[in-house]
């Protein structure tokens, strides 16, 4: 009877997941997915559009050409912090984080473009930091995993990767078409400032598009409702879950305690591995050597690629 109860619990979970997937199909909004992909594309364009001209910008403000590495990297440093609060914010909404992201990126690019006329390297760096604080890539990823139906999730994930790669390619290419120079009133428009002005306009258009067409998912309301099940259903599920923890053979647990204490240590370690990490040190201890090796490889890959991209304009000069 315990076995049949456990089996029925699994079937019930499967049926529930299928019904939730059908509900997801009904409430799926294609334009909202497109807005998340466009946000990803524009952010990567914003990151790399300054790469060909940052060294000239730094020299015009009285700094060394190699300061371009700091200007480009400051956006990624700010993204470390923005990923934290955007991830927490996406627990309650997707629309408001995207609005905030667009505003921050608009202001950051505005400061980046005005730094030339203000002759201030500090304004330039603050603008890039604001752009990094507006990184909503964590929201874009989570929207795909939470709000896209299962049958379309693979295509949406492929679209996310393609949008990222296309943004990385279009950014420097777009900067190549901005090799012009003119002046409107007291504002200078040249190859250094035009990337900032172009991205200002792009984020302003995106903000308007987002405000008019984005549809907030309904699963936030469903989550609140699902957290208040009926008492009878709760009691049945509680009894079935208690059956999952009981051994199939009564003497098995006693024999394991008498024969092997090492297994107990491994069981405690495995139970601890499922607990959430409370600090960086505890998170580091939970990683296996294989995971650590993969993280080092990933770090070195990004490290080498960013060095090559950041200093490419200096090398080609």
From TrEMBL:
Read off the InterPro entries from this record: MFS, MFS_Domain-Containing_Protein, MFS_trans_sf
Q: For the region Disordered, what residue ranges are annotated?
A: 255-276
Major place of residence = membrane
GO MF entry, a single one: transmembrane transporter activity
Query: How does this protein sit in the membrane?
Result: Multi-pass membrane protein
Query: Keyword set for this entry?
Result: Membrane, Transmembrane, Transmembrane helix
Kindly give the Pfam families that the UniProt entry links to this protein.
MFS_1 (PF07690)
Q: What subcellular locations does the record give?
A: Membrane
Q: Which residues cross the membrane?
A: 33-51, 57-86, 98-115, 160-182, 194-212
Chain intervals with Acidic residues compositional bias? 259-268
Q: Name one GO cellular component term.
A: membrane
Q: Is Transmembrane a UniProt keyword of this protein?
A: yes
The record, for PANTHER family, names: INNER MEMBRANE TRANSPORT PROTEIN YAJR, SPX DOMAIN-CONTAINING MEMBRANE PROTEIN OS04G0573000
Name of protein:
SPX domain-containing membrane protein
Gene source species: Panicum virgatum
């Amino acid at each position: 009877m315990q076995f049949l109860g456990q089996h029925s619990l699994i079937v019930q979970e499967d049926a529930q997941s299928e019904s939730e997937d059908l509900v997801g199909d009904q409430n799926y909004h294609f334009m909202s997915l497109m807005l998340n992909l466009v946000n990803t594309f524009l952010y990567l364009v914003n990151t790399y559009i300054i790469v060909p001209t940052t060294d000239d910008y730094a020299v015009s403000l009285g700094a060394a050409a190699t300061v371009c590495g700091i200007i480009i990297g400051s956006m990624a440093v700010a993204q470390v912090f923005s990923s934290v609060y955007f991830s927490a914010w996406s627990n309650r909404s997707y629309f408001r984080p995207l609005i905030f992201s667009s505003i921050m990126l608009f202001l950051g690019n505005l400061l980046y473009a005005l730094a030339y006329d203000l002759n201030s390297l500090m304004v330039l760096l603050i603008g890039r930091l604001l752009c990094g604080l507006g990184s909503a890539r964590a929201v874009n990823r989570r929207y795909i995993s939470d709000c896209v139906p299962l049958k379309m999730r693979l295509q949406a994930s492929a679209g996310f990767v393609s949008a990222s790669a296309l943004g990385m390619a279009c950014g420097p290419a777009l900067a190549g078409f901005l090799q012009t120079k003119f002046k409107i009133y007291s504002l200078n428009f040249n190859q250094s400032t035009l990337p900032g002005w172009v991205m200002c306009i792009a984020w302003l258009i995106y903000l308007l598009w987002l405000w008019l067409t984005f549809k907030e998912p309904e699963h936030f309301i469903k989550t609140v409702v699902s957290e208040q099940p009926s008492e009878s259903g709760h009691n049945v599920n509680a009894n079935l879950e208690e059956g999952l923890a009981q051994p199939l053979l009564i003497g098995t647990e006693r024999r394991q305690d008498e024969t092997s204490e090492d297994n107990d240590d491994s069981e405690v370690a495995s139970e601890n591995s499922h607990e959430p990490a409370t600090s960086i040190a505890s998170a580091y201890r939970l990683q296996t050597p294989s995971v650590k090796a993969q993280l080092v490889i990933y770090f070195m890959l990004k490290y080498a690629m960013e060095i090559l991209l950041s200093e490419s304009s200096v090398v080609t000069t």
